[in-house]
Design a protein that fits this description.
single chain, mainly beta, four-stranded antiparallel sheet, 1 helix, 1% helix, 40% strand, globular
């Protein structure tokens, strides 16, 4: 039988769930109690499963921990895994993203941080070095900070070419490299910055991008949840077009793509930044199966009324089982799951601290 691991990062620790049928789950935790867990990765390369966790202690500060035994034990290096070089004058606030590369780049793991910077590991996440070319980009000093801070929160690799990488910063926008990070270009054509004056709402950079997901078949197709607006790119991020028609709101944080089926993506809409609650106070995931030309609500088994749970940018994810599982956690401390690609839902766990991130993967 297929075994799935579900990692749930919260404001006060990490919870790990395991299931062989995606109906009955056993959870352990909290791991790292009183640490805010903003990032988790499940790296299955090299014949083993490695968990990497970005934990933020209010007393000891941020750190990256790893486990090679599915969370039975954890290792923290004696020296900081991620640190800003002294000449930058910056210090690490938190790790927003830990993203293993694909088989095209064995051992490579990318990290996105606050302040917004990119780090690269070549030893599976045991040590990281800053990608200085992005930090020294002439536009970086003009990047703003989102309400939750200035974070580099999205890192997308290209299995066809390890030299290509796309990142997103709140509030700097989308940047791409085609030469392994030696140079970076802003890639925000068509993305609206609705918080700017009307005549300036389509700048070269400075958009508050919330999350990006990649189509599993057409690797040049990307789906983006913006601070106002859902968008699609068909040219690897060079340009974007609005695809939020049919949604009850175009604000939100999270977006995820189906692990195998092209054109299929999921969002969790919220009313605009002034309220940040589900439209109509109804808990609903919306799915497109035609790359954003239309959207359908997925709500069977979800709370129907008086629901205020907010799903954050990394708290909506799929697994890679067949059929695909879909998971989200919210700031009410609930984790909901679907074992049938969103057709029906069940509550897995409740009364957790605020859920900050979710990851799910087949481990056996």
């Amino acid at each position: 039988m297929t075994e799935v691991l579900l990692a749930v990062g919260t404001e006060k620790g990490l919870f790990l769930g395991r299931s062989r049928d995606r109906l009955d789950w056993e959870f352990s935790g909290p791991h790292f109690p009183m640490n805010a867990i903003y990032s988790v990765s499940v790296d299955r390369r090299g014949g083993r499963v490695r968990l990497l966790v970005g934990a933020d202690s209010s007393h000891w500060g941020p750190s990256v921990w790893r486990s090679d035994d599915l969370g039975a034990s954890w290792f923290e290096p004696p020296r900081p895994t991620i640190s800003f070089p002294e000449h930058t004058g910056a210090s690490l606030t938190r790790v927003w993203q830990l993203q293993p590369a694909g088989e095209e780049a064995p051992g490579v793991v990318w990290a996105g941080t606050e302040p917004a910077a990119l780090f690269r590991s070549e030893d599976g996440g045991e040590s990281f070095a800053m990608v200085e070319s992005l930090w020294t980009h002439p536009q970086r000093p003009e990047w703003g900070a989102g309400y939750g801070g200035q974070g580099l929160h999205t890192i997308i690799t290209d299995p066809r070419d390890p030299q290509k990488l796309l990142v997103a910063v709140s509030s700097g926008g989308v940047y791409r490299t085609k030469d392994g990070g030696q140079s970076w270009q802003p890639s925000n054509q068509g993305l609206r910055a609705e918080f700017l004056p009307e005549e300036s709402q389509f700048p070269e950079f400075g958009q508050c991008v919330h999350k990006i997901a990649t189509d599993p078949v057409d690797r040049d197709r990307l789906y983006l949840q913006n601070h106002g607006g859902v968008y699609r790119s068909d040219d690897a991020g060079e340009s974007w077009r609005f695809i939020a028609d049919g949604l009850p709101a175009d604000f939100g944080f999270a977006i995820a793509a189906h692990p195998r089926r092209t054109g299929t993506a999921y969002v969790f809409p919220l009313e605009g930044a002034g309220s940040r609650i589900p439209p109509g106070r109804r808990c609903r995931v919306f799915r497109t199966e035609d790359a954003g030309d239309s959207w359908q609500p997925l709500a069977a088994g979800l709370p129907g009324e008086d629901h205020y749970g907010v799903v954050l940018r990394d708290a909506l994810r799929t697994d890679d089982a067949d059929p695909a599982g879909l998971y989200f956690g919210n700031r009410n401390g609930e984790v909901h799951a679907s074992a049938d690609e969103g057709a029906s839902w069940r509550l897995l766990v409740s009364h957790l601290p605020d859920v900050l991130c979710v990851r799910a993967a087949v481990i056996g």
